[in-house]
User: Fold this.
Amino acid sequence: MKKIEILGTGCPKCKKLEEETRVAAYELGLKCQIEKVTDIQKITAYGVMITPALVVDGVVKVSGKVPSVNDIKNMLR
Amino acid sequence: MNWKSEWKPLVVIVSVFLAFFYLPIGNLRFENGIIEALQLTKWYAREHVLLCLIPAFFIAGAIAVFISQASVMKYLGAKASKVTAYGVASVSGSVLAVCSCTVLPLFAGIYRMGAGLGPASAFLYSGPAINILAIILTARVLGIELGIARAVGAVVFSIVIGLLMHLIFRKEETEKAKAQMAMPEPVVYRPLWQNAIYFASMVAILVFANWGKPDESTGLWFTIYSQKWVITGLVAVLFAIILMTWFQLRWWEVVSVAALTIFFSLVFPHEPLLAFGVAVIGLSVITSRADGEVGEWFSQSWGFTRQILPLLFAGVLVAGLLLGRPAHEGLIPSQWISGSVGGNSLGANLFASIAGAFMYFATLTEVPILQGLINNGMGKGPALALLLAGPALSLPNMLVIRSVMGTKKTVVFVVLVIVMATISGMIYGANFN
Assistant:
């Protein structure tokens, strides 16, 4: 099972990334656990400075923008 | 009944009921305040939305998409030279902090993984004050003088604050986080000078469309004013050509929007807003349907609009209700305001700084609130003090800052911000009153 984390302090873009990630995971039929990380300490621990960011199994896939659902699907595969 | 889940709606219903039960209709000051709120909002809608805010949102969206944040951040990394780091930290807010919600993670990153406490503090202070939307709206509504003073004050004093923070805490070696800065690789689509011309033409459209009527009716400024729509139109043609050649928009789409715009400007030559509106709608339709970076440009611009505009208008309504339009009074009597923040005394500047530091302003709402305060007799010095201390700090973000760098440094930072805002307010007030 994949572990997906959405890093962001709660701005509208972070919410959008979470939404799109859920859509992408659902469309892929992926078994995963999606978690929101809002603690700024944990966010910087990943080396992320520009939120929102998408982390899959501990690897930062994207930071600073909301990719399209198709791009997210490629990152989740 | 389940009280645990039902108490919230109950509280809402009871408070709405009480508000209407005691609604002070018939009270002259209250009714006047309502009228003022509506008048002020109408004035914003007429004067500031189409020509100023909409182009500003497109520029902000473009900054978010076309300026690589990673390329700026490399100057704030752990290995960057100190002089560069302070310089970049003090001005980079204009491109990095387009959305106020990104300021705190960037601050934490610079502090823990990058150039350290000094540049991080400088960034935290100047970032919210010099983001592009804040400067444009401040200059437009509160006057170009205060707009420039705000930007210059924020940049200069952010370096001072950064250096002081560094000196005060120089003995404490900050434990660098082991994490590496994770920055997306910038993708280069076109040379820098093409991007520069693209931004310059957008800024030129914004500037010339908003060219104010000068007092005298001769001279260069007046010539520009009388021809401002011709100039704006010419720049718009250049902008359209840029979009077609460098941004690969379909030429027939751009040409049809341009043709529609020209049609409306010829048929209704005295209603330039109509042609401008057609052009904006056309641009939105084209860019929203595009994919890739142009599509992202529109969705970023729209994101800012959706996020900021409702808050701004709520702020305008509240400011109008409490403070009224220019030369009118809202709910709060003018004497209260001129009494506490009028003139340019130390007390007035200090009060404005402290109030600004603790109060939370949603992005841009500091502008209508300040406009109301100035109209009710707030001095220019305290106005600048509030503008500098206000967006940089608020009670909620102090708590986040504390979690990043600890209580002691946070207290020192807050005190420095208040002191610096007070000093810059006094200098500005003494020179421009």
